[in-house]
Amino acid sequence: MPLTSRAGVDRRRSTATGTGTLAALVLVAVCGSSGYARWAERSTDPNSAGGWFLRLLAWPTWRLDSSAPLETLFTDGLRALLLIVLTGVLLYLLPGPQSAPASGLLSQFFSGWGAYVFAAGFAAVLATLFGDDPSLFAAFQAAGTGAGYGFFAGWVVGIASLGGRA
């Protein structure tokens, strides 16, 4: 009996973990790019809700330019990478709708959203502790910023994880 084939499983149907992680990857790759961050900085009003939100989306900024110090490039890249990896891990570990008391799409949505909030907070803490100025105070401040980003951007991951099997 082959180990790669399971009877009754539709291989075309996506998993909540896979689609949520893919959404996190797209958010970080597009909105975290230095091009998007420069555009948001130049083209949006920080005193409007829309401008503030578009600037917030650039929080997991990763850079490939050599003008920034090496420590900053490492810390920013680590934060972006950890955000994607931790989102996938937390989406896998958090209880899906099949085991939650309130099963259904709402449970799946909040599971994906919550995973992104926690992943952003943890990624911020870990990147700060491995950065050029590791302090517990800076890590706590970064966790607040990361969790705030996850709260306002995590609904995208929540929506992406809807309808997928756990």
Automatic annotation (TrEMBL):
It comes from the Bacteria. Keywords: Membrane, Transmembrane, Transmembrane helix. The chain crosses the membrane at residues 21-39, 77-94, 106-130, 136-162. The keyword Transmembrane applies. The keyword Transmembrane applies. This is Uncharacterized protein.
